[in-house]
Amino acid sequence: MAVLPLTAAQDSPQRKYIAQYASMAVNEMYRSGVPASITLAQGMLESRNGESPLASKGNNHFGIKCHNTWEGGKMYYDDDRKGECFRKYKSVDESFRDHSDFLRYRDRYKFLFDLKTTDYKGWAYGLKKAGYATDPAYPQKLIKLIEDYQLYKYDTMSAEADVSVPDKAVTEQAPAAEKDKKAAEQKSTRPNKSSKHAKAPKKRRKNVQTIPESPHQLEQAQPLDKEKQEVFRFQLTRKTYSQNGVPFIYSIEGETYESIAKQYNLFTKELLKFNDLSKSEPLSPGTVVYLQAKKKQTRSGLDKYVCEGGENLRDIAQRYAVRLSSIVKLNSLDMNTPLREGDVLKLRK
User: Fold this and answer.
1) Tens-digit pLDDT profile for residues 255-310
2) I want to staple 115 with a disulfide (CB 3.0 to 4.6 A). Which of 24, 119, 142, 248 is the partner?
3) Whole-model pTM?
4) Cα(93)–Cα(271) distance, integer angstroms
């Protein structure tokens, strides 16, 4: 991915930052799902366009603090409190990658990945809601940077495209150009008044399988590949969902593992094994119950999980449809190992 040279009009700290790191932000978007515009705007704001002490001395462009599990380099800086510990990186690329992972693998930011990568306003307000920054004007500052420098263009850029810094003149003309474009699109899709039977073009629905929100906050389902999708045939009218390619249902009031096993023509021990249980236990309404054996690892792109505190290994196994024994083996743990806030668990080899 090439970065085009700066013009004289673009020679400012902000535009230099964009020219230098736009390709990195786009690469991270394709790797992690964090919009490139959000990554760039946060980097510009948090690092003062790469000129802050944290950025210049520690390659930390996003103000990420050490937390209790950080084992890399450290540097101390006065922020909310005096002498706070911040992460120090060997390179800027490492900082960008850690920023993406910081958002991708923490529960409090999970809801952001339900948003489209083009919804930069939703992401900006969501980051504030999740507690990324204490500044009450944080979302507005990000949005202003994104719109002033047309960072939203990078959210729709392909991984192979040349990355350039939008020219100042283009930025000033953008609203009018966008308006003319929308008018042209509306005109091209408007029915012909001379024909009584003219119809607006129908929207084609994408083949996407989604999982509704549940008490277990399951990972968002991904678009299905027609050649790879599994077909689950259960002779019942009850709705069945899928997580990590494994079918499951949400339990309802009054159900037990025994009644569900009978309903789906399974042995009770078999159903319990699918759900990493050695014996039956009471079922609360809305509990996820898998109907087939879970996978040995998560899908590609979801490599790890950062603990928020309060969960156990089985909770995570159920959430991601991965066998408890596999998580234990991948992380060289004991079945009953307690988890602390900030612990990182591998979910793939």
Assistant:
1) 999 999 999 889 999 999 999 999 999 998 888 999 999 999 998 878 888 887 78
2) 119
3) 0.55
4) 45
CATH code of the domain in which 97 resides: 1.10.530.10
Residues 321 and 295 sit within 8 Å (Cβ to Cβ): yes
Q: Is the pLDDT of residue 137 over 90?
A: yes
d(CA 276, CA 112): 29
Name every residue whose Cβ is closer than 8 Å to that of residue 114 and which is 6 or more positions away in sequence: 220
Closest CA to 291 of 272, 309, 306, 312: 272
Question: Is the CA virtual torsion 282, 287, 293, 295 positive or negative?
Answer: negative
252-268 residue pLDDT tens = 888 999 999 999 889 99
- Does 251 lie in the same domain as 108? no
How many CB atoms lie under 10 A from the CB of residue 59? 22
User: 95-117 burial, b if ≥16 CB within 10 A, otherwise e?
Assistant: bbbbbbbbbbbebebbebbeeeb
Rounded to an integer, what distance in angstroms lies between the CA atom of residue 64 and that of residue 54? 10
Cα dihedral sign, 169-172-177-182:
positive
Q: What is the mean pLDDT of residues 176-186?
A: 45
Please check the confidence at residue 69 and state whether its pLDDT lies above 80.
no
Report the sign of the C-alpha dihedral through residues 218, 219, 220, 222, in that order.
Answer: negative
Helical segments of the chain, H only: 13-32, 36-47, 53-58, 92-104, 120-130, 138-148, 168-189, 257-263, 268-274, 313-320, 324-330
Containing structural domain, residue 95: 8-168
> Under 8 Å CB-to-CB from 50, ≥6 apart: which residues?
13, 16, 17, 20, 21, 43, 56, 61
Pairing of strands 288-290, 304-306: unpaired
